[in-house]
Design a protein that fits this description.
single chain; mainly alpha; 18 helices; acyltransferase; Probable alginate O-acetylase AlgI; transmembrane helix; transferase; membrane
Length: 466
């Protein structure tokens, strides 16, 4: 049940109708819980029991074990959640690497066939449950004794599959509050949803065929087309995931709930540090608070240890996206870039050199060069195909500037810039309700009619695979 499907629209409408028809907080919680279970069942009937079982296990440990021994409880929660994540997402990858390592020393072992079964959204809800357990341990909140509220925190269907990654102390109090319906709530929720829909179904799904075709056979295309495919994927994944996030925020807002923002103009960043403060913000914050800082962060440590912490964080952040060395390389590129970025501010350079690299256009170009170069490894199916794309881009031979891409591809890139400006202005700078009624109608109709004109019945959201 995709966000851009009729089924999701019907489920959302029926749930909202039932939700707002009662003023009982407990009954509203039951309605949201049932709708969320129905939503997940549409993806997998069996895995919904895995998810519910994991929630119950976390609830039992945090309510039963934490009061007696919070350290033991924390270890049980982390091991249980990471154990489930490892079993489904990384076991096959781990076994294959062990088999390869044994073959290098002369031991031939047949690799067992492990079925590729990945519960939808597992990386997201596992991270949410771990953050909840750590926050309890650090006494940032008290354990939720109502299993229904904990279930809604994890299962809430607008953000269940691909985030944003919520914090329990931010979201759970909203579940227990009697939300009030208002015109501002409806306008904001509807606008966020329509804007996300336009970005996903208009831009991302429109560009996807050109990107997919080029990355499927990079050797059949010239250097410029390979470069354009990389640029196209950067636009595609941004609009796909930003679109999903806005649709999630919009759907949640219609229930009166506020979810954390996930994007804030990442492609205008002038440093890699700034990029990660603006791209997939909830994941960046999670990695910072629950991995980088526990490793030691950057406080009172040697440069070597700080670099080590940055690299470990980003390598594991890459691996979080998928069991593939391509994702590890992607994370490694960003870890290295963050380390270089940090050393740049520590090392004394000639004032002329410093001025060149600190010049806003230059720092933006360098930042985007790193970001888009790393997208090659994120998108390519295999390492060899990623290296082929890199080779084609930097092989300036005859016919380099010839393109086989359709004019619609370039048209969508132009439309992306326009929608980027409008969406950013009306979601990050100030909410749609802060504008005049005339401008609200103008922005809303722009997104709505763009969706009608450029709508593409595309595949699922990119981040659903993670």
């Amino acid at each position: 049940m995709l966000f851009n499907s009729e089924g999701y629209g019907i489920l959302l409408a029926l749930t909202l109708l039932a939700y707002w028809s009662t003023k009982s907080v407990s009954l509203r919680q039951i309605i949201v819980f049932i709708a969320s279970v129905v939503f997940y069942i549409q993806w997998s009937f069996l895995f919904v029991f895995l998810l519910l079982g994991l929630i119950i296990l976390n609830w039992v440990i945090t309510v039963g074990v934490y009061p007696r021994n919070s350290r033991l409880g924390l270890w049980l929660v982390v091991l249980a959640n990471l154990g489930i994540l490892f079993s489904f997402k990384y076991l096959s990858f781990f076994v294959d690497n062990v088999v390869d390592a044994l073959q290098l020393i002369g031991i031939v072992v047949e690799s067992p066939r492990i079925p590729a079964l990945l519960p939808l959204g597992i990386s997201f809800y596992v991270f949410e449950l771990i953050s909840y357990a750590v926050d309890l341990y650090n006494k940032k909140m008290v354990a939720e004794r109502n299993p229904l509220k904990l279930s809604i925190f994890v299962l809430f269907f607008p953000h269940l599959i691909a985030g944003p990654i919520c914090r329990a102390n931010q979201f759970m109090p909203q579940i227990g509050t009697l939300q009030k319906l208002s015109s501002d709530l409806i306008v904001t929720g509807a606008y966020l949803f329509v804007t996300g829909f336009a970005l996903k179904c208009g831009i991302a799904d429109g560009i996807a065929p050109y990107v997919n075709t080029t990355f499927a056979n990079p050797g059949n295309y010239g250097g410029l087309d390979n470069l354009l495919a990389v640029v196209g994927f950067g636009v595609q994944i941004f609009c796909d995931f930003w679109g999903y996030s806005l649709m999630a925020l919009g759907a949640a807002k219609l229930f009166g709930y506020d979810l954390p923002s996930n994007f804030n103009s990442p492609y205008t960043a002038q440093s890699i540090q700034q990029f990660w403060r603006r791209w997939h913000i909830t994941l960046s914050n999670w990695l910072r608070d629950y991995l980088y800082i526990p490793l030691g962060g950057s406080r009172d440590l040697s440069n070597f240890k700080i670099t080590r912490n940055l690299m470990i964080t980003m390598l594991l952040g890459g691996l979080w996206h998928g069991a593939s060395y391509n994702f590890v390389i992607w994370g490694g590129i960003h870890g290295l870039a963050l380390s270089v970025n940090r050393y740049y501010h520590l090392v004394r350079l000639p004032s002329g050199v410093k001025a060149v690299f600190s010049w806003a256009p230059m720092s933006w170009i360098l930042t985007m060069a790193v970001v888009f170069f790393s997208w090659i490894f994120f998108r390519a199916p295999t390492l060899s195909e990623a290296l082929m794309v890199v080779s084609n881009i930097f092989s300036f031979g005859a016919g380099y500037m010839q393109t086989r891409l359709d004019g619609v591809f370039f048209e969508l890139l132009v439309m992306f810039v326009i929608l980027y400006f409008i969406a950013n202005k009306t979601t990050n700078y100030q909410p749609i309700t802060h504008y005049s009624t005339r401008n609200q109608l103008l922005f809303f109709s722009t997104m709505f009619f763009f969706s009608l004109i450029y709508y593409v019945d595309g595949a699922q959201f990119i981040y659903f695979q993670f």
